[in-house]
Amino acid sequence: MFLGNFLTDTETVAVAACFFGKQRLEYLLELFGIYARPRIGYFYQDVPVKKETLRELVDLARNSASASNRQALKFILSWEPEKNAKIFPLIGFAAQLRDWGGPFDGERPAAYIIILLDTEIAKQTGADTGIAAQTILLGAVEKGLGGCMHGSAKKPEMMQALNIPAKYEIQLVISLGKPKEQVVVEKVGPDGKTAYWRDEKQVHHVPKRSLEEIIIG
Amino acid sequence: MFLGNFLTDTETVAVAACFFGKQRLEYLLELFGIYARPRIGYFYQDVPVKKETLRELVDLARNSASASNRQALKFILSWEPEKNAKIFPLIGFAAQLRDWGGPFDGERPAAYIIILLDTEIAKQTGADTGIAAQTILLGAVEKGLGGCMHGSAKKPEMMQALNIPAKYEIQLVISLGKPKEQVVVEKVGPDGKTAYWRDEKQVHHVPKRSLEEIIIG
Fold it and tell me: Residue B164 contacts by C-beta under 8 Å, 6 or more apart in sequence?
């Protein structure tokens, strides 16, 4: 199926020709590959992310699937240094890199999207949080950004710091910015360890299980 | 940012020209839009989905983010009518369409991907299930397929019917096939109701909250 499937017939022919026979999925794969890269995230902190960009990313999530279509997720955007400074110390970064104290000032995220559950709409999010987060990060990569999902956060402190009403529950924090880090996705080695690691050149390595290991039937 | 960012410089020029200045994100938006459509799913059941296609979809999920990179999700594929027939009666379809008894024989999914948690690796999936499911469905749309995430399933019966070892927990079932249904994403009306519905022409309507309603700060 070619990219052209989303275009008019005339455009299809042109685009198909341009793609030299490559299927769009290959580009998606590249996209996902790139998405996988800026997982941990240190950034060019001085490259700002616009409010409008964050709104566009949430709009992608808005149009995605939701359990029973209840749409119980709400979002808080942060793109200004003052608000960012409130959020940064309350989220966990790269817990498996114990020797790393970063990201350091100047390499911190330039923006955040906080995903909340509106408990007046639903008591749990099911798969909705992951659907929204993946959609947002995919869109972010598309915009030349990278990011990280932070499940680890000091949630009570964040509720207070941002004056979030008690009816909301923080689900996930997404950090965003222009990625500075180099990341390599590779196979899990014979020791079976999946922990990510950094080499001496500060390249971030992410070992992924094989397709054979994860398809069980 | 143009699609061309993932191509060589020569390809970039050609593709950028073909796209008439459209940004790739616009195509992603269309893609997500299309993805949102075949949400409920009745299908051209006689159009098969190949095993290799399902493997490619899982491979997209495999390369995506995972909490602490533990990769505790495992997958079962089904593309043969016999196995499909075991799965179909054990999943819930469109609970909000109470008068609909379908999808009926001939319009049922042609394939399934069952997402499991390997409890020997992790005790919960966090956002991983949603990340994987969204990734798979996005890839499916790319391949001219559509699908639905089924959180509602008779899980003990499915464990038994498919001889799934007890260390796995069923998280979500994704049905797949060539979509037959017409779906429209629209605004939530003044009554605030988000339940999806079908009109007399069997067009499926999915009301989505506005961006203003879901961005709270």
Answer: A217, B76, B116, B158, B170
